[in-house]
Design a protein that fits this description.
- It comes from Herbihabitans rhizosphaerae.
- By secondary structure, the chain is an alpha/beta fold.
- It folds into two domains: about 160 residues, Rossmann fold; about 120 residues, N-(1-d-carboxylethyl)-l-norvaline Dehydrogenase, domain 2, CATH 1.10.1040.10.
- About 50% of the residues lie in helices and about 10% in strands.
- It has an eight-stranded mixed sheet with strand order 3-2-1-4-5-6-7-8, sandwiched between helices.
- Helix 10 runs antiparallel to helix 11.
- The longest helix has 28 residues.
- The structure holds NADPH dihydro-nicotinamide-adenine-dinucleotide phosphate.
- NADPH dihydro-nicotinamide-adenine-dinucleotide phosphate binds next to helix 1 and helix 4.
């Protein structure tokens, strides 16, 4: 059992799951949340509810933040900066890479140290062997706090730049959110014909898992994107672009939102207009980067 005292600030579903995992691992855990009642279950499990953010900061060597965004961190810790000297903040909240860089500079100005974290699993998976968290900031700081942080999920270090863990988090969420929206859009298309969603969604999930089968481990795709070479005539931009247009027209015909398929179609249109129509669909990368 570790005795490193840890503070968790922000008790949404993620912060509660993190604090519960840390309590289970035997850490003395202090918590603080704007809405104090969200701490009730954790207090019953052994956490200490701090009366103020300053008390919460004083109680932990490591202060884990799990908030909606970074402005919330300043709202909470702005009046408690006197206690930050010698403390490490690990902010596992979503925001922009620049927000993480600015927060690191702000914390360091007040004598503290800062790690950016991006938790890659939903609350029920926190503390399980499948959980992982991207971190960036000083490597030695992560090494120092790894025994505590690994309780939440396997730490994956992505670099010294404080913005990087946020960027990795966002890039993964970019894939995730777009895929989730596409599932809902596609289901709306299907149900517009009176077909139950259940007749469609299990098959649609197989389409999602067919993507790795199509593009392999990602290494070949990475090489092609890095070289700017897009050989292959099985899935050309012209062929895929025509399908993208059909999805837009079908969506319009049945009165389903066209925002997502129009964005996809526009990428194909621009790749074809740039003379890349007979290249592999990966040529879209050239117009997306631009
Ligand atoms: P919630 O939105 O449920 O919780 C947010 C927390 O932030 C609450 O404790 C809330 O306090 C607090 N908060 C927000 N604004 C302020 C403010 N201005 N001042 C003080 N406190 C504030 O989020 P989650 O727990 O779901 O997520 C936390 C972070 O983890 C987010 O950045 C999210 O993107 C990320 N994440 C979430 C995942 C998920 O599946 N939920 C998965 C991976 C990452 P109060 O209770 O008083 O409202």
């Amino acid at each position: 059992m570790s005795t490193t005292p840890v503070t968790v600030i922000g008790l949404g579903p993620m912060g509660r799951a993190m604090a519960a995992a840390l309590i289970r691992a035997g850490h003395p855990v202090t918590v603080w949340n704007r809405t104090a009642s969200r701490a009730d279950e954790l207090v019953a499990q052994g956490a200490t509810l701090a009366a103020t953010p300053a008390d919460a900061v004083a109680a932990g060597e490591l202060i884990i933040l799990s908030l909606t965004d970074y402005p919330a961190m300043y709202d909470i810790l702005g009046p408690a900066t006197d206690g930050l000297a010698g403390k490490t903040l690990a902010n596992l909240s979503s925001d922009t890479p620049d927000a993480s860089r600015e927060a690191a500079a702000w914390t360091e100005k007040h004598g503290g140290a800062f790690l950016t974290g991006g938790a890659m699993v939903p609350p029920p998976m926190i503390g399980t062997p499948d959980a992982y968290v991207f971190y960036s900031g000083p490597r030695e700081l992560l090494d120092e706090h790894e025994p505590v942080l690994k309780v939440i999920g396997e730490p994956r270090y992505v670099g010294a730049d404080h913005g990087l863990a946020q960027l990795f988090y966002q890039a993964h969420l970019d894939v995730f959110l777009t895929s989730l929206s596409s599932l809902l859009h596609a289901t709306a298309l299907i149900t517009s014909a009176g077909v139950p969603a259940a007749d469609f969604l299990p098959g649609a999930l197989k389409t999602l898992t067919a993507i790795p089968a199509m593009i392999g481990t990602g290494h070949e795709l990475a090489e092609s994107l890095e070289k700017g070479e897009h050989p292959g005539d099985l899935n050309t931009a012209i062929m895929m672009g025509a399908t993208a247009e059909h999805i837009v027209r079908t969506s319009e015909a049945v009165g389903v939102d066209v925002g997502l398929p129009e964005a996809v179609k526009s990428q194909y249109d621009r790749a074809i207009a740039a003379g890349r129509g007979t290249e592999n669909w990966t040529a879209l990368y050239e117009v997306i980067k631009a």
